[in-house]
Design goal:
- 37% of the residues lie in helices and 19% in strands.
- A six-stranded parallel β-sheet has the order 5-4-1-8-9-10, sandwiched between helices. A four-stranded mixed β-sheet has the order 3-2-6-7.
- With 306 residues, it is of the alpha/beta class.
- 46% of the residues are buried.
- The structure holds alpha-D-ribofuranose.
- The site of alpha-D-ribofuranose has 15 residues, from strand 2, helix 1 and helix 9.
Length: 306
Amino acid sequence: MDIAVIGSNMVDLISYINAMPKEGETLEAPDFKIGCGGKGANQAVAAAKMGSKVMMVTKVGADLFADNTIQNLEAFGIDTEFTTKMVGTSSGVAPIFVDQESKNRILIIKGANEQLLPSDVDHAAEKLKTASLIVLQLEIPLPTVYRAIDFGSEHNIPVILNPAPASKELDFNYVCKSDFFIPNESELEILTGMPVATGEQIREAASNLIKKGVKNVIVTMGSRGVMWITKEKNETVASQKVTAVDTTGAGDAFIGCFAHFFVENGDVLQAIKKATAFAGLSVTKRGTQSSYPTSMELEAFLTSLN
Ligand code: RIB
């Protein structure tokens, strides 16, 4: 197994809006799209689309969304042996609002994702041990995230921790135990309490984490690119100029694609460059997983940049 994603899945209910209604107001919005999402599933799909062998440890509810979510993962070749249906609960859903500037606001109702427990990591142990990389986000209970990080340490498997959505309760010892910590700017701000308005401020906040013992901090900054900070390195990869129509799931696109190329050859900077282009392409289409390019589209885009 190349990559094990232990994390969330959601059904994305995306409204394309001209304005948010005020209290008591009813407003018409021009468009709506339903799709498979969830930060974990998005990252799994991005990696699988690039050609990685991916497994997902996740939970769906016992409702009309469940089978569709499992079938969708399987359609991308993702191993769903440890994707479990939970009786008596709903699947995770995410009402999303995308405005005319292609910016998004996301609500999550975690549903079955809330029931992904540390014991589920142990239950999947034999298959997880075969993974070259574990990928985690924060839409599942923190004890499960911690168990997965410990599992990675016990079995010498590198771990990516994407602290999304940001939680101030995140135990910093586990941030240090992960190999790659990948927040966006707003998550970095919440988790460090430091300002992130400028590139210099982002660098300072990320460097602060490095001083406290984090190994690799990779900050995704949207149109401003991606910053990679370690004790020795301080690199910024620019993002390509594209016409954005929907930025939802771009961070997940980056992480899944980065995971694939990191496992493929271990070259972090190269993986960041390819993942930045992949995420850039994803914002040119609507939806989350449905906006992710194929590896041929990514290669064509990379070639066009040279
Ligand atoms: O990062 C985007 C994702 O966040 C959406 O797919 C939504 O489901 C939420 O999890």
